[in-house]
Amino acid sequence: MDELDALRQMRTALAREESPDRLALRTNWRSGTPPRRRRSFKVPIVSVISTAALVAGAVVVISVTSSPAPDGVPPVRLGEKGGAHEPGNALLVAATNVQKGPTREYWHTTRITGEIYAIGKSAADHYKLESRWQYDEWTDQSGKQCVVNQDLNARPWTALDKQKWEKAGAPTTVEFPVPEGGMGVLFLKPTRTGGPCRNIGDRQFLGMTVKQLAALPTQPEQLKNALLDIKGNWEAVSAKPGERPIRALKGEKRVRALSDVAGTLLGVAPAPPAVRAAAFRMLATLPGVKAEGEATDPLGRPGTVISLPVETTVPLGIYTAPKQLGTYRRQWIIDPGSGTLLAVRDLVATPPHGSRKLPPGDDGKPRRLTVDTQPDRFHKPGEVSQYEVYAVAEWTDATPN
């Protein structure tokens, strides 16, 4: 059991050991780098949190910002300069604007990850709670990083859920079923704040150093060709799991993997503006990627929805993929004006159903995954199952807090 499992057990007070289940949009299980992620994303995004970072446990003040364009250089808007309102246009506009941004001393990100839990015994009487983690990271030009992490308190997901929670007595601790068996606990009490930024040494992204990221191609086709060489456990379900390059994948599997690594370049990694622009342009060339109108992210920021051609049973990775009972659809929310990836969210496509056999536990007894143990068992198609929001993603000269 790695440090992510241990942290999550401390958080949820599980009655028994819990697997890496639901811990994966931030686990870099593909590229061979240390595990990083929070709780779930049916198809992983990418980032790495080290052991030292995981024990930091402190809060930071969120400033909703993004790298601005240089003074006197107005952003390109959708539809301007002959830009057609076609599927890839929002991505191309974002690419034009992000390329104008500066590169400074530190790459600073604040990420908040959330999973929506259904609390209750039936679809009729349940309410939803939002379980959240926050990760604040500074990476300098040499790749050295310091991190502040916090387990945020859970809270009702919508106003209606708040009414139902209050009707249930407004409990400050709530039990929920754990996919592997047993019960976990969500805490709605305010979380203790404070704590320094922990230095964790050199950081890699997608198996690359900061210098290697800076050397990536700045043309979309060349960048795509370079990313196709990244090795990882890309298969959702495989009888013989093992690392292989993305270029070994075909069709939707390849698109999914390329969109995942592009998400890392845009939301997490200290990639220079020209590389980030190339990532947006590469996404615009992938089959099935399209704009789906406007929406707000979990912080209330407006943006353009980019739908990825991904409907999958993958909750997280090789170990957990065969356990998922539902299917999910991935969306990005971007701000084309600033060239910023605001958030990624997974929507329920097919709610959990049926059951699936699991490997025997430590006691050797047979186990089976059932709908009753799924956090989103009462979700309807189209409802958010989980998300990752990028509250801050900017180059800055400000010293880490």
From TrEMBL:
Which spans are transmembrane here? 43-64
Q: Which InterPro entries match?
A: CU044_5270-like
Keyword match Transmembrane helix: yes
Extent of Basic and acidic residues compositional bias: 359-382
Q: Where is this region: Disordered?
A: 350-382
Question: Which key words tag this protein in UniProt?
Answer: Membrane, Transmembrane, Transmembrane helix
What this protein is called in its record is Uncharacterized protein
Origin species:
Planotetraspora silvatica
